[in-house]
Structures are given as structure tokens and as C-alpha cells.
Amino acid sequence: MASLKDVKTKIGGVKKTSQITSAMNMVAAAKLRGAQQKMEDFRPYTEKFNQAMTSLSANMESGQFPLMEVRDVQTVEIVIVTSDRGLCGSFNSNIFKATEKLISQYEAEGKKVSLVCVGKKGNAFFKKTGKIRKAYTDIMGSFQMFNARSIAQDVAANFLAGEADKVHVVYGKFMSIAVQRPAMETLLPVQPEVNESEDAVEAGKGTGDYIYEPSPTEIMDVLLPLYMNVMIYHAMLETGASEHAARMTAMDNATRACKDMIDELTLLYNKARQAGITADLMDIVGGAEALKG
Amino acid sequence: MAEKINLEVVTPKGAIVSEEVDIVTAPGFAGEFGVLANHAPFLSTIKVGTLHYKKDGNDKELMISGGFCEVSNNKITFLVESAERGHEIDVDRALQAKERAEKRLLQTKEQLAKIDRTRAEAALQRALARLKIAQRQ
């Protein structure tokens, strides 16, 4: 049995750990609020953007834009958006699993896969596969639009050069504070969503008599790269919010586990202490008996 | 009172303006254009510059950077990368950006790749647009 002192040291250690985890939980909660706010602020922009894209592409041939060109798929590029930091439960490994599944699916069809990693964790995980074409690390903390833009430009250039025939993006979708799921979307060739919602139908109605300045084709040329920025920025924001939510849950669990452990150890400590007292008493009683003769 | 048009300016940081206004003037692809109530459906790309609008006789302005604008159903929506009011503009930063861009543009063609040139030109435009509004305040 462990000595009294050992148990006491251990209780102290676990207490310290639980202090750290509960502090991390609070930090994650605060950061989550910020990230969620950013996500909400960005939503109207995305919605309006998609509306405009849908109404524009409704009366246009998709084949005339290089970024919308559907090619025979030989090579596939996957943009993986993960967090820069760990200690957030199974959040990143879920994204890895989803990505690996996608990779093996494409490779089974005999297609070549290359990766673009956004976030440190993805880069570290996929490094040994040798598939990484480019990695962007330490940019998940600040959410800057220009980061998304440089990634979008690079991916688009690669697509236009014919190095990749299809580009997917995998990220952690924020469903709620408790649930985050890896999600996959097709980035290139661009396929504007054809949704049947009322807004889209209404937006589509007026398209016939729109005045375009410059021509629809030229507007589309401006819009398409912007659309990619929006998609990548969106994926980054979602992953950021999911990361903090996942860390919050993980740290909450850790704090609870610490508490259970402290309870158990305290019980052990008290048992040991009692056993010690009993042994001491036995000694005294034994000594007194002996003296009586 | 004349009829009004609903103006919305949306950036990645959220909606900056959402108001009923009398008239909107903005720097479009083919030059400055004005929009009054009940304008025909219209879609244009937007250049860096100043967005003016009038509400109840008061002139207001915003610095906007590139994007596009859509008019439909008596509603004008600007989707731009950034929009700032005069008092929000950091004059020192804009001045620095202007100097930096000008210095870069003075370099010869060999020294400056084409992509850097377009980027510097865009930065200069943004800085100038910011300064223009900030100085009027």
C-alpha cells in the first residue's frame, strides 16, 4: 500500500491538474464566444453571395469559365482545415479519419491525391504520407481574410495549371457546442448550389431583365475567385469555432475526471490514516498490557 | 417625402449599414452611378472608393473596397471586402500604406513582378480612398 505521504503528494498533483484544465475550459469558452460571433457576422455575407452566384449562373454556360470546368478526374487535391493546437479531444482525429477515408477512396480508383494542410495538426499528421503539397500553419488563431485569400489563390492556380482536376475541402463543421462533425465540400470546379429555397427562386425570377455592368461573364470572372475566398474563410471559421467547442468539452471532462480521482485518493488517504492510527493504538495497548505484567 | 430604397452594406465582418435611404452613389465598374428608389434590377462590380448616401437630407459616406452590388426589389445590396466610416479610419496607417505603395510603384518594371504591381496599385487606391474620406471629417 502506498504510504500516506505518497497519497498526499498525488492528491496535490491531481488538484493542480484540475486547476489547469478548468482554466483551459474557461479560456476555450471565451474564445468560442469570439469565434462564434465571427461566424455569425460572416453568415449574411455568405448568404448574399450565394444568392448572387445562383442568380448569375442560372443564365450562363458553366463551361466558359476555367474555374468551373469539369474535367476528367486524374488528380484530386484535398484542403484539410484543422486546428493549430491539440488538447481538444478527438476533434482533429475525426477530421483525419474523414480525410483518410476520402484519400483511400480516390486511391482505390487509381487517382492521385495531394494535400494542402491548413493548421499545424493536419500538417504534423499527414507529413509522413508525403502527399502534402503545401502547408499553412499558425494562421488559425487570428482568422484573417487575407490568409484565406492567399490559400484560395494558390489552390486556384494549381487547378488552372491542371495539377489538380478536383479540389475538396475538409473541415470541422460546427453543429452545436456539443457536436462538431467533419464535413467535406467540393471547392473546384465551382458548382453553385442549386437550392430550391424561396429566396433562390425569387432571385432567379428577376435575372432575365437585369442590367449587368460589365457583362455577366466579366462579373463572373471577378466573382469566382471571391467565391473561393468565401468558401475557404468559411471553412476556417467553422473549424475555429469547432476547435474551441471541442476543447471546452474535453477540458470539462478532464476536470470531472480529476475530481473523481481526488475523491478516490482522499478515500484511500483516510483509510491509510485510519489504519495507521489503529496500529498505533494497538502498540500502546500492547505496551500497557506488557507493563502490567 | 419621396420614396426610399433599402440600402445594405455587407462585409465579412457583418452588415455595416441597413437603412432606408433616399439616394445611393457608388463607384461602379463603368464609373460613378446613382440609384434611386424603384431602380431596375442591376448588378455591377464595385471599385475601391467612396459610397455616398443621403438619408433625410443628411449626406453620409463610407469608404468601400472592391466587391459587387446588386439592385432588386427596391433594395440595394453591397457585398464588399471592407467598409469604413470616416471616424473609423486610421489616418496614420493609411498614410503609411500610401507611402509604401508609392515607393513600390516607383521601382522599375524589372524589379517589380506584375502581380506585385497590381497589389501595390490596389493598396494605393485603398489608402487614397481612406484618406479622402478621413480628411473630409
SSE layout and pairings?
The complex is a heterodimer of chains A (293) and B (137).
Chain A lengths: L3 H55 L16 E7 L9 H18 L3 E7 L1 H7 L5 E5 L8 H16 L5 E9 L5 E9 L9 H8 L5 E3 L2 H77 L1
Parallel strand pairs in A: 1-2, 1-4, 2-3
Antiparallel strand pairs in A: 4-5
Helix pairs in contact in A: 1-5, 1-6, 4-6
Chain B lengths: L4 E7 L2 E8 L1 E6 L2 E5 L6 E5 L2 E7 L2 E7 L2 E6 L2 E6 L2 E3 L5 H16 L7 H23 L1
Parallel strand pairs in B: 1-9
Antiparallel strand pairs in B: 1-2, 3-4, 3-6, 5-8, 6-7, 7-10, 8-9
Helix pairs in contact in B: 1-2
Number of strands of chain A: 6
- Residues in helices of chain B, as a percent range: 25-40%
Which value, in Å, is the CA radius of gyration of chain B? 16 Å
Structural category of chain B is alpha+beta
The two chains with the largest interface, and their residue counts, are: A-B, 27 and 24 residues
Mean pLDDT over the full residue set of chain A:
86
Indicate the structural class of chain A: alpha/beta
The count of strands of chain B amounts to: 10
- How many angstroms separate the termini of chain B? 28 Å
Q: Beta-strand level of the residues of chain B, as a percent range?
A: 35-45%
CATH homologous group name of chain A: ATP synthase, F1 complex, gamma subunit
Number of discrete helical segments of chain B: 2
Query: How widely separated are the two ends of chain A?
Result: 35 Å
Query: For the largest beta sheet of chain A, what order do the strands appear in spatially?
Result: 3-2-1-4-5
Give the strand line-up of the largest sheet of chain B.
2-1-9-8-5
| CATH 2nd-level architecture of chain A | 3-Layer(aba) Sandwich
Description:
The complex is a heterodimer of chains A (293) and B (137). By secondary structure, chain A is of the alpha/beta class. Chain A is 62% helix and 14% strand. Chain A has helices at residues 4-58, 91-108, 120-126, 145-160, 198-205, 216-292; strands at 75-81, 112-118, 132-136, 166-174, 180-188, 211-213. Chain A has a five-stranded mixed beta sheet, with helices on both faces. In chain A, helix 2 (91-108) links the parallel strand 1 (75-81) and strand 2. In chain A, helix 1 packs parallel to helix 5 (198-205), helix 1 (4-58) runs antiparallel to helix 6 (216-292) and helix 4 (145-160) crosses helix 6 (216-292). Chain A starts with a helix and ends with a helix. Residues 196-201 and 203-207 of chain A have low confidence and may be disordered. Helices cover 28% and strands 44% of the residues of chain B. In chain B, the strands form two sheets. Chain B has a five-stranded mixed beta sheet, with no helix packed on it. Chain B has a five-stranded antiparallel beta sheet with strand order 4-3-6-7-10, covered by helices on one side. In chain B, a hairpin with a 2-residue loop joins strand 6 (49-55) and strand 7. The longest helix of chain B has 23 residues, at 114-136. Chain B is elongated and about 55 Å long. Chain B starts with a strand and ends with a helix. Classes of the chains: A alpha/beta (293), B alpha+beta (137). The interface between A and B is medium-sized, with 27 and 24 residues.
